[in-house]
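[audit] Reproducing an earlier prediction to check determinism. Same input, same settings, fresh worker. If the tokens differ from the archived copy the diff job will pick it up downstream; this log only records the rerun itself.
[audit] input (217 residues):
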Amino acid sequence: MDGDPKIQLLVLALDLLGTFVFALSGAVAGVRHRLDVFGVMVLSFVAATTGGILRDLLIGAVPPASISDWRYLAASQAAAVVTLLFLPALQRLHSPVQIFDAAGLALFAVAGAQKALAFDLSPLMAALLGMLTGIGGGLARDVFLARIPHVLRAEIYAIAALAGAGVVAVGSVLGLPSTPVALVGAGLCFCLRLFAIRRGWQLPGASDPDDGGSPAR
């Protein structure tokens, strides 16, 4: 990726941190579903890298960083090892999967938007690609565990990612410094997701005509 070295370093740092955090969510979910050690490691990698791979393929950054840079694999497997060794400590957190998932969502959303902007996408498309980067890992994790993805049924999820990525896009239009803007965007996404979990904020459900017009569940 050409361009400002500071932007490149920021995207890499957000990507690797997001990879580690999303991998934690995948590993904890894998343990809860009683996968074996290899299954936990696979799920960690899938949850941590799917969003970034989709992003890189769409913007033409091939091969995707997640499979060409050893640090992504190392980060995801380090998270799996941490989970396997320190699961009791992680479980003391309230809903650890949701917390790690919210943090990964926030980091990937802003990193995805930053990288899209670095590849000269429009701010609008950068925000949408940031959202896709954020939701990709959680969606893949849930599909591997044979459950309906959070993004399709949970409290505010994709909207939170879009809000965080949107901050990055707007900051770019206004010419604001990238690092503070990325931190604000990640903070906004993380807080929206946590408030949605705690307070049960949800988008209106789709109505099913065959069920008396009540929202489908």
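[audit] rerun output stored. Observation attached for the diff report: The chain has one domain: 5-200.
[audit] end
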